[in-house]
Amino acid sequence: MVGRRARSGRGWDAIPPRTGDLPARPRRGRRGRSGPDATAEPVDDGTWPAEPSDGSSSSDEPPRAEPRDEAEVAREICLRQLAVRPRTRAELAGALARRGISPEAAAEVLDRYDEVGIIDDAAFARAWVSSRHAGRGLARRALANELRQRGVDSEVAGAALGELDEATEAQTARALVDRKLRSARGEPDAIFRRLVGMLARKGYPPGLAIRAVKDALAAQSAEAAEFADQIDADALTPDPDADPSLD
């Protein structure tokens, strides 16, 4: 009987080596770490935020800004208001109060603006009277009401209104009536009442308003002049609610 060949360790019938006979397989570190001291330590793959180097927690909120000085906030509010148009001290004080600025901080800022001339109620009143009279044809009574609504002192307002005399008011009233008459339609009586009411709403005294309309009608036509001759300026009272579309 022919003896069996010794197994060479190659081929299908090779006997697998025992575990203890295998050389130790080096462990490889993750993502590029190798060598005899390589370990399977995890590496930062972007899944979790890395810890800050200073030891603080990455979940800490950013530091809050220090509260701003109240006077600085008040100054910014005032400057934004003044960028639109000139304001009186009372208007600026009201704007600051609505924004929650304390009376003490508001007074500090407004006093300083008074000193340097940023706030000047007298100059404001003069400019307001000139602009509103020339642009809208407002008389002193209406202008005084507007200045009072804006907090201008009565003495300061009176000085500004004193620059608008009665002769100038009468001239402006007549110019307003002449302009409206060019497009007015209807009977002389209806036109008369509408124009007098228009002047009344602009603050003109009754006598001045009636005389201005009467004189303008007399110069318009023979029919209007005949009607105007019958008007008693001292006996009529203007109706301020008559056809406000003529304003």
From TrEMBL:
Organism expressing this protein natively: Micromonospora echinospora (Micromonospora purpurea)
The organism's taxonomic lineage, starting at the top: Bacteria, Bacillati, Actinomycetota, Actinomycetes, Micromonosporales
Domain RecX third three-helical: 169-212
Role: Modulates RecA activity.
InterPro entries for this protein: RecX_HTH_1st (IPR053926), RecX_HTH_2nd (IPR053924), RecX_HTH_3rd (IPR053925), Regulatory_RecX (IPR003783), WH-like_DNA-bd_sf (IPR036388)
Region: Disordered, residue numbers: 1-72
Subcellular location: Cytoplasm
Residue stretches making up the RecX first three-helical domain: 74-112
Biased composition (Basic and acidic residues): 61-72
Any one Gene Ontology cellular component term annotated for this protein: cytoplasm
Protein name: Regulatory protein RecX
